[in-house]
Amino acid sequence: MRLRGKVAIVSGGGTGIGAATARGFAQEGAHVVITGRREGPIRSVADEIGGVAVPGDAADPAHATEAVRAARDRFGRLDIVVANAGLGSGGSAGDVTDQAWGHTMDVNLTGPMLLVRAGLPLLLERGSGSIVLVSSVSGLVSSTDSVAYVTSKTALLGLMRSLAVDYGPRGVRTNAVCPGWVVTPMGDESMDELAAARGISREAAYLLATAHVPLRRPATAEEIAACCLFLASDEASIVNGAMLLADGGQMVVDVASLAFEDSNI
User: Fold this and answer.
1) Catalytic positions, please?
2) HSE toward the beta carbon, residue 180, CA cutoff 13 A
3) CB 36 within 8 A of CB 11
């Protein structure tokens, strides 16, 4: 078991990537503290894997402290922090409301920083540990009308690099996973919008959204969880300050060349 005896906190662990990560970690021998805004889903996952559920707002410093305290009080240590909680919101810079901008930054950027900051004393006390930030391909490229989401996920990569530089010398590694489209409740919402606009099914919308991705499909939550598991484990002991693209090859596509597909040129 790759995480035998280790203790992890996974934020946003009630559904999607977070729930798959919590389950995967538990299967590999870890004790898991699961956080999230909705109490029902995180308690369900925690009960399933023998973990601890700590409901609360990711952007609340007191909640981050409570999650770390739960890890220490229940399991006596902390080895891994997976900052996965996040949300998406639309709008260009000219359209996004102050409320939507602020809420997106609070959850997607400030929340991970608060959780990491609360956990650092326990990680540093042991002189080892792994921090995994769940960013996105949107941290590297931009879709339309997504200024708050794109900015938050880009800034999350800056946070990753800063943590890697500041705490790598003290034994704490920090890395980021950058997924493309993933079949999750959050992804389903976007696909349902696309499906309604095109008059197609949700499944067809996922295929349409990934039509130019080399693997021609979205990821599963379990596939992204496997990436988090690798970065959290000792198998990645030399990996620090890295971005792990988990996008089916999306980022290697030359977008300008797509105009030549299926042409007689």
Assistant:
1) 149
2) 22
3) yes
Residues whose CB falls within 8 Å of the CB of residue 175, separated by 6 or more in sequence, listed in order = 130, 131, 132, 133, 160, 164, 231, 236, 239, 240, 241, 242, 243, 244
Residue 129, C-beta contacts closer than 8 angstroms, at least 6 positions apart: 78, 79, 80, 81, 119, 123, 171, 172, 173
CB 44 within 8 A of CB 22: no
- Length of the chain equals 265
Sheet holding 129-134, edge to edge: 52-55, 31-36, 7-11, 80-83, 129-134, 172-179, 243-246
Of the candidates 249, 229, 189, which has an alpha carbon nearest to the alpha carbon of residue 4? 229
Helix, strand, coil shares, percent, the chain, to 5: 55, 15, 30
Residue 61: strand pairing partners: none
pLDDT of amino acid 263 = 56
- Calculate mean pLDDT across residues 51-63: 96
Residues 6 or more apart from 197 whose CB is under 8 A from it?
none
pLDDT (tens digit per residue) in 202-247: 999 999 999 999 999 999 999 999 999 999 999 999 999 999 999 9
pLDDT in tens, 26-36: 999 999 999 99
Q: What is the pTM of this model?
A: 0.96
> What percentage of the chain reaches a pLDDT higher than 90?
94
Cα–Cα nearest to 91, from 83, 79, 81, 103: 103
Contact 226, 160 (CB under 8 A): no
Angle (CA) 73-57-138 rounded to 5° is: 115
